[in-house]
Structure formats: C-alpha cells, structure tokens
Amino acid sequence: MSLVVSDVLMPRVYDVLSLVVSDVVSSCVNKLPSDYILWAIVVGLVVTGAYLVIYYWVLMPKVEAVADSTILSMALTIAAGTGGLVLLVVNYRKQHDLEESRFVERFGAATAQLGHEDVAIRLAGVYALVGVAERTRYRGQIQQCIDVLCGYLRLPYEPNTAEPHQTSKVIKRPGKDAANFAREEHYKYRQNDAVVRQTIVTVIAEHLQRKARYKWSSFAFNFTGVYFEDATFDRAVFSGEQVSFERATFGGAKAWFNGATFSGERTSFLGATFSGERTWFDGATFSGERTWFDDVTFGAALTWFKGTTFSGERTSFCGATFESELAWFVEATFNGDKTSFKGVTFVGKEVDFRNPRQWNPAPHFDWDNPDSGVLKPDNVRPEEWPPTEKCDPVSGDS
C-alpha cells in the first residue's frame, strides 16, 4: 500500500512544484538575464532538489521497498520536467522579444507622427501612441508612452504669440547704418498646437477615470511647467508614486478637479498659477503622504475647495497667495497629520473656512499664536475662530 501511495503521490507533488515554478517564471520573464537557458536549468535543479527532499525525508520512511521501475520512472519525470521548464522559459523569452520588437516599431512610428509639422499627423500620432500604450501589458512601456505625451505638453508654448494657423514669423531689423546688413529673425510655430495639446490632456484624463477600460491612474505624471487651457480632470484618480503640476499655468475659463483623488506618495502644485476664471477642487481628496500647494497663486475669480478632504500625512499651502474674489474651503475636511497655511497671503474679497466636516488635527495659520502679533485677516471667515465643525443632521454629532 505504501509503495502504491508513493507511485501515485510523488508525480503529483512534482507537478505541483512545476506549476508553481512555471508561474514564477512567467511573472519574472522580463527580468531574466541573457543566459536564461542556464537560469532555467538551475530552476529545474531546485525543483529536483525539493522533490528529492520531500521524497526521502517525508515519504521514504513510510515505504518498505521501492521497485527499480519506480526509481526509473521518477528519474524520467524529473528529466522531463526540467526540460519542460527550459522550453517554457525559452518560449516566454521569444514571445517577450517579439512583443518588444513590435512595441519599438509602433512606438517609433507614433512618436515620429507626434513630431510632424502637420497638425492632422500630430493628432494621429497622439491616438497612435495611446493605442501603443493600450496594446502592451508591460508597465515600463506604458510609462514610456505617458512620458512622451507629458513631454509634448512640456514643450515651450506661448498661447498668445501666434495666430491659430500661423506656422512662422519673420522679423526684419534694419542695420544701424548703410554699411550694416539687415537682420532677419525667424520664429517657427507648431500649427494649431492648442488642438493637439488639448487632445493629449483629454485622453490622459479619460484614462484616469475609475471606469476607464485602460487605467493609467497608478502611473507617474510630470506636468511641470505645462500650460493648460481649460483643463478638466474631474473625477480623475492619481494613485501613482508622484504627480507634478509644479510651475504649471492654468488659463482659460476653467481648471476643474472636481471629485479628483490624489492618493500617490507625492502630489505637487508647487509654484503653479491658476489664472483662469474658475478653479474648482470641489469634493477632491488629497490622501497621499505629501501634498504641496506652496507658492501657488490662486488668481481665478472663483477658487473652490468646497467639501475637499485633506487627509494626507502632510499638506502645505505655505507661501500661497489667494487673489480670488471668493475662495471657499466650506465643509472641507482637515484630518491629516499636518496641514499648514503658514505664510499665506489672503488678498481676495473673502476666504471661507466655515462648517468644516472635520478640523482635527487643526491646520496651522500665522495667527494661531496670540503672542506672535499676527492677526487674522478681516476677509477670512468665520469671524469666530477657529471654525466650528459641521453638525451631522442624522446623528447629531459634530
């Protein structure tokens, strides 16, 4: 009976070990060294060692006698399993190389279109690059595509320097005297570049939605120095390690981040300028470790943080300037470890912090310390400071 159990059970043990290692090989195929065949053989030997340990230390004491045919069968099983692992790794590597080659080809073609002078070809390049990102299953390749799209937005752009269809400008400057030649200055513009840029922002925002088929939320985004015209990131989810809007400029009629979620390690609007008509962060959530609004200029007529949640480890508005006619933090939640409004300038008509849903730990302001001599500005509401937390109408709790 023991011999029968051994004959039946041990091949199954080996099969289980083989399946486990196959999964490991599948997930790690991108990290294999160049001598991956040798590596696969090593894995096979490890499996063989595990097989023998289980057999001789666990089952062998229970077996009275082992037939020569059984030993031969086990040896052949080990050899076949090791060879199968080698073949598996080789096939995976071939498939990976093929996918890598296709990616390079498609990626190169898309980026070439994105750099073309013709606006229609550049638009096609945007969608081609998005298609490349959606076809690949490797995070590094998706990040490459995102980096190129963000990189295009970071290219120098002056919205007021050229007419929509103007591609170049020539300025002739005469010499100071007859002996000097006239000087010409040539400026090249990307035709209808605003259309291309808006398209890029739109497709990125679409891939940041919770219901998006292809989600990019967990990737990094670098919008440093980008000019946004009517930016709309409503309900976008940024959960990657970092997202940077540093020194970005938000122009046009709106900059909307309503219901957006920032849960990555670092979120930075450092030095950004909101100069459009409306800036809305209504219902947004900042729960990442670090969130910076330092030195930001809120110059829109309306700046809304109504119902916004600041729950991250550290949130800073230090050195920010609120020039908006109305800036609302009404019903906001402040429960992060540390939130600072130190050095903030409130020069607008009204800045309202009334009815917070939570004010614990309380954010820090310059006038917190009565001995500092700094008084709360008259345009900051409520007059009775600190604000009283909003009462829950259902439970009656604050």
Helices and strands, with pairings:
Layout: H1 2-28, H2 36-59, H3 68-114, H4 119-135, H5 139-154, E1 168-173, E2 183-188, H6 193-206, E3 221-222, E4 227-232, E5 237-238, E6 242-244, E7 249-256, E8 261-262, E9 266-268, E10 273-274, E11 278-280, E12 285-286, E13 290-292, E14 297-298, E15 302-304, E16 309-310, E17 314-316, E18 321-322, E19 326-328, E20 333-334, E21 338-340, E22 345-346, E23 350-352, E24 358-359, E25 380-381
Parallel strand pairs: 3-6, 4-7, 5-8, 6-9, 7-10, 7-11, 8-12, 9-13, 10-14, 11-15, 12-16, 13-17, 14-18, 15-19, 16-20, 17-21, 18-22, 19-23, 20-24, 23-25
Antiparallel strand pairs: 1-2
Keywords: Membrane, Transmembrane, Transmembrane helix
Organism: Glutamicibacter arilaitensis
Biased composition (Basic and acidic residues): 378-392
What's the gist of this structure?
It contains 6 helices and 25 strands. It has helices at residues 2-28, 36-59, 68-114, 119-135, 139-154, 193-206; strands at 168-173, 183-188, 221-222, 227-232, 237-238, 242-244, 249-256, 261-262, 266-268, 273-274, 278-280, 285-286, 290-292, 297-298, 302-304, 309-310, 314-316, 321-322, 326-328, 333-334, 338-340, 345-346, 350-352, 358-359, 380-381.
Q: Return residue spans where pLDDT drops below 50 for at least 5 consecutive residues.
A: 1-6, 29-34
Mean pLDDT: 82
What is the count of structural domains?
3
Largest sheet: 11 strands, parallel
- Percent of residues in helices: 25-40%
Structural class by sheet pairing and helices: alpha/beta
Return Rg in Å: 31 Å
Architecture overview:
Residues 359-398 are annotated as: Disordered. This is Pentapeptide repeat-containing protein. Residues 378-392 have a biased composition (Basic and acidic residues). The protein is of the alpha/beta class. It has 3 domains: 2-113, no CATH class; 117-160 and 193-214, no CATH class; 220-398, no CATH class. The protein contains 6 helices and 25 strands. The protein has helices at 2-28, 36-59, 68-114, 119-135, 139-154, 193-206; strands at residues 168-173, 183-188, 221-222, 227-232, 237-238, 242-244, 249-256, 261-262, 266-268, 273-274, 278-280, 285-286, 290-292, 297-298, 302-304, 309-310, 314-316, 321-322, 326-328, 333-334, 338-340, 345-346, 350-352, 358-359, 380-381. The strands form 4 sheets. Strands 4, 7, 10, 11, 14, 15, 18, 19, 22, 23 and 25 form an 11-stranded parallel sheet that branches. Strands 3-6-9-13-17-21 form a 6-stranded parallel sheet. Helix 5 runs antiparallel to helix 6. It is flat and about 85 Å long. The relative contact order is 0.05. The model is unreliable at 1-6 and 29-34 (pLDDT under 50).
